[in-house]
Design brief:
Blueprint (H helix, E strand, L loop, with lengths): L1 E6 L15 H16 L5 E4 L9 H18 L7 E4 L12 H12 L4 H10 L2 H8 L3 H9 L5 H7 L12 E8 L2 E7 L39 E6 L10 H11 L2 E4 L6 E3 L8 E4 L17 E10 L2 E11 L4 E3 L5 E6 L8 H28 L4 H9 L9 H12 L3 H13 L3
Parallel strand pairs: 1-2, 2-3, 5-6, 6-7, 7-9
Antiparallel strand pairs: 1-10, 4-5, 8-9, 10-11, 11-12, 11-13
């Protein structure tokens, strides 16, 4: 079984401790991690968007410090408890390329032109794609530390001049359950988020617009050996092609995780058969909402596969102004019947064995990535291993991205990197 700490809409701001209106709540949450640790801990932490409040680097520094407090209480590090994130509308720095992004909005909301526009931007008009991603620079630096940045984002951060065969989503394998790989797909639903994006799709205002996500971002393989889980900030109702999007997601993702609306719910069209859609409540829901419907929330998500059945259990905890307590109203259990093992081919069974073999290597690289990108000695480490590859004309972060990408496929260099990190005490 996988046990996951599930959060959404944490809305970190950068301020002095005494100015933080959520200070007591955050302290109560960190202290609650003692009970999480003592009742089995967690395998992963998932954050379903709106990590920051204005998409600024200082806010992600605050979020990183908060996560370190959580790790300390859980008595783990990122090798034991991995963090995966997706961006929300508050992870967009709305001061970046505002005019250009607004000019393209109509094209990206028109079904007749949207996909071709993205295709041309990716393969021919690279500056257009960079402009689309530019408001997420601080977010993606944070996400990259936690192995959550998609390949296109990493390419843009590293100054790549070719985005062919790079994905718009990040896939991560959470673990094997009953010979099924549980695979998480981290998606960016906030491409078109700005000051005019829709607040409530049930009551759209004349100056508001809906959102867009390109089809290649939600088009993974649907192998019978894999259980696909999607995580993105906005529910389908926020998108121009809501109905088609819902149909596609229900076909491809057995479990779907969404944030944004600050209250929690779960839905499944056909009990036991169709996809599960989990709407996650907010850790920082604001001060003006009904406290019964919008309490500050965190969840323990338990995922298991037993005899070909995916079992999902959501255990909700909400803040009562003093501590986090179990909230039965927002706790749920659902199940989905998967394809039977007997229907698998020999090649599929071999693929499962391959996936099992790479699990430990993946975990090791995850931990190494986190140490490297949090190091204060990135340039020194790269130059210790191969000074010729460091490009003084590029920012240190771009050098780090290029170096780690090349390193991760070379076991001997991986060991050199590990040794160098140890040398500098990182």
């Amino acid at each position: 079984m996988l046990r996951i700490l599930l959060l959404s809409d944490i809305h970190f701001i950068h301020c002095e401790d005494d100015e933080n209106i959520y200070r007591s709540l955050e302290t109560a949450f960190v202290e609650a991690m003692d009970d999480v640790r003592d009742t089995g801990g967690v395998n992963q932490i998932l954050i379903c968007g709106d990590i920051a409040n204005w998409g600024k680097q200082e806010e992600y520094n605050t979020a990183e410090s908060f996560l370190q407090r959580v790790f300390d209480r859980l008595k783990c590090d990122e090798r034991q408890t991995q963090v995966y994130v997706v961006p929300g509308n508050h992870d967009v720095d709305r001061d970046v390329n505002t005019v250009t992004r607004r000019a393209w909005r109509g094209t990206m909301l028109d079904p007749a032109t949207a996909e071709d526009f993205v295709r041309q931007a990716k393969h021919k008009e690279l500056d257009a794609l960079r402009t689309i991603y530019s408001p997420f620079e601080a977010y993606y630096k944070f996400a990259n530390k936690h192995s959550s940045a998609d390949a296109v984002a990493v390419g843009i951060l590293s100054g790549c001049n070719n985005f062919n065969n790079m994905s718009f989503r990040k896939e991560v394998d959470l673990g094997m359950l009953d010979n099924y790989m549980i695979r998480l797909h981290c998606l960016n639903s906030a491409w078109l988020c700005d000051k005019e994006d829709v607040v409530d799709p049930r009551d759209m205002q004349p100056n508001e617009h809906k959102l867009f996500i390109t089809r290649p971002a939600y088009n993974p393989e649907t192998d019978s050996t894999v259980v696909n889980i999607s995580m993105m900030h906005h529910p389908h109702a926020w998108f121009e092609n809501e109905a088609d999007l819902r149909t596609e997601f229900d076909h491809k993702f057995k479990l779907q995780i969404y944030g944004h609306v600050h209250t929690q719910s779960i839905s499944q069209d056909v009990e036991g058969k169709s996809a599960i859609r989990l709407q996650v409540g907010s850790l920082h829901p604001g001060q003006v909402r009904d406290p019964e419907l919008y309490p500050p929330i965190y969840n323990i998500l338990e995922i298991d596969v037993v005899k070909g059945v995916l079992k999902v259990k959501v255990i909700c905890y909400s803040w009562n102004e003093e501590e986090f307590v179990k909230n039965d109203r927002f706790s749920y259990q659902r199940r989905v019947v998967l394809k039977k093992k007997s229907s698998r081919t020999t090649n599929q069974r071999k693929e499962v064995e391959k996936m099992k073999a790479v699990e430990k290597t993946t975990d090791d690289l995850y931990a190494l990535r986190y140490r490297f990108f949090n190091s204060e000695h990135i340039k020194e480490i790269i130059c210790d291993i191969n000074a010729k590859v460091y490009d003084e004309s590029k920012p240190e972060y771009a050098n780090a991205l290029v170096f780690f990408k090349a390193t991760s496929s070379k076991p001997d260099v991986v060991e050199q990197l590990r040794a160098s990190l140890n040398k500098y005490g990182d």
